[in-house]
Amino acid sequence: MGKKISHRLQALLEKVEDKDYEPLEALGLLKEMATAKFPEAAEAHIRLGIDPKYTDQQLRTTVVLPKGTGQEVRVAVIARGEKVTEASSAGADVFGSEELIDEIQKGRMDFDKLIATPDMMPQVAKLGRILGPRGLMPSPKGGTVTTNLAGAINEFKAGKLEYRADRTGIVHVMFGKVSFTSEDLLVNLKSLQESIDRNRPSGAKGRYWRTIYVASTMGPSIRVDINTLREMKLTETA
Description:
Family: Belongs to the universal ribosomal protein uL1 family.
CATH topology of the largest domain: Ribulose 1,5 Bisphosphate Carboxylase/Oxygenase
Strand order of the largest sheet: 7-1-8-9
Subunit structure: Part of the 50S ribosomal subunit.
Pfam families: Ribosomal_L1
Function: Binds directly to 23S rRNA. The L1 stalk is quite mobile in the ribosome, and is involved in E site tRNA release.
Largest sheet: 4 strands, antiparallel
Strand content: 15-25%
CATH class of the largest domain: Alpha Beta
Protein name: Large ribosomal subunit protein uL1
């Protein structure tokens, strides 16, 4: 099995040149390279000139992908009183108060995004060891600690993503499915680029953008021309 994949990947690697591709050309190539037997995601891997061990060089924020993520996002909400009813009415898949915290402690994980109201955070904090490693711990920066539950639920279901730079300064983001058109993938990628520029950490020195690669889940990495992407003006944003 492994050998078969390496043959497949080897053949694909030979089609990718060692150069900066124009964004639309790169996305067309990404779609061509997605030959796995399942619906692959489109991923971006962006190396930034930051050192996240310094607090003023950390990047953690959200972006709304105009064309959506291509995934159904299951949202859980921890709140109390009428806020639980609000979460239910707004389309949350899982909702509750202390009892939901207990269920998560016992292993319940049937959700992709967890939102909490600020008054519940002292109790949610004890879930840190379970939620932290999975990237599910609610945070104000990630838009997941809020009293506006309906707005947050709708945004995450419509294509809002939380992303952060890892400790080496690289941002890994899924920005759609390979089944999207190249144009739709470009709209999402452009929104991501603008978000990263808009949220440039105050301590970032020198050249902020180092490299950007796109790839399908099982495909090879394709280097994108950063300057072309940043200078592009897309008329369509929805």
